[in-house]
Amino acid sequence: MTPNAAFAELHERGPLVHCITNYVAMNIAANVVLAAGASPAMIHASEEVVDFVPLAGALTVNIGTVDAGWAKAMLEAAGAAREANVPWVFDPVAHFATPYRSEVARLLMAQRPNIVRGNASEILALAGRGGAGKGVDSGDGVNAAEAAAMDLAREAGAVLAVTGARDFVTDGTHRIDVVGGAEIMPKVTALGCALTALTGGFAAICAPLDAAVAALTLFAEAGARAAPEAEGPGSFAVRFLDELHRLRPGDLDESRATWR
């Protein structure tokens, strides 16, 4: 499914996306999902996630501000998604930073996510190849993580989306580059986390590889359109949401995504 076709389906169906994300990202992630045409549900209590997951079109899990209670809920939600055949997307935020975060990421990967989205350092570390990350920021370029992403995709049976100045998507066989966006995007906190939530929207309506490419293409398009009039990170964030809301199926420049 092409990005524009996937975007049309997203607008037509408006899927419900169950987002377990971090405190920093909750607001912008919900707004991004809404602006793009899907419906977010920001539910993370272990007492209700198992009951809620089957109601959603997709689940997204982000460990940015994980603690023991949230980890329990994340694992239960991921298990429920597998049981109900609900696609789910994993964002292993800074999983390499502490042993605790690494263990939570390991347990979540064992629940077989359909899509894993992270920066190059996160993907390198998840594949057991080190990485030069600093906190939530990547110290590695996307090029350095391509081989690791392909190996991890085959091992995990998942689509890997490595995001940066150029994005890279693979299912272990196919390789897709996505370009666009804006240099200022890393200066707006939690945009990457919001991208994970948006990817869940597309995962609800198309195959994982197509979902990742469509989400990245839409993000790149909105970022490129928002940047020229932005005066800084604050105005960019507002303009980015406005562009997501303004974009319609058929507006995406599909040449941003190159299949190799």
Describe the structure.
The protein has 260 residues and is of the alpha/beta class. The protein has a single domain, classed as Ribokinase (UDP-N-acetylmuramoyl-L-alanine:D-glutamate ligase). Helix content is 48%, strand content 15%. It has ten helices and nine strands. It has a nine-stranded mixed beta sheet with strand order 2-1-3-4-5-6-7-8-9, sandwiched between helices. Strand 6 and strand 7 form a beta hairpin. The protein is globular, with a radius of gyration of 16 Å. The model has no long low-confidence stretch (mean pLDDT 95).
Adjacency order of strands in the biggest sheet: 2-1-3-4-5-6-7-8-9
- Biggest beta sheet attributes: 9 strands, mixed
The CATH class is identified as Alpha Beta
Q: What Rg do the Cα atoms give?
A: 16 Å
Tell how many strands the DSSP assignment holds. Answer: 9
- Structural class, judged by helices and strands? alpha/beta
**CATH H level, superfamily name:** Ribokinase
- Known CATH architecture: 3-Layer(aba) Sandwich
**How confident is the prediction overall: mean pLDDT?**
95
Domain count: the total is: 1
End-to-end separation: 17 Å
Tell me roughly what share of residues is in helical segments.
40-55%
As a percent range, the share of strand residues is 5-15%
String of helices and strands: HEHEHEHEHEHHEEEHHHE
In DSSP terms (H or I, runs of 4 or more residues), the helix count works out at 10
Shape: globular
Poorly predicted runs are none
CATH topology, which one?
UDP-N-acetylmuramoyl-L-alanine:D-glutamate ligase
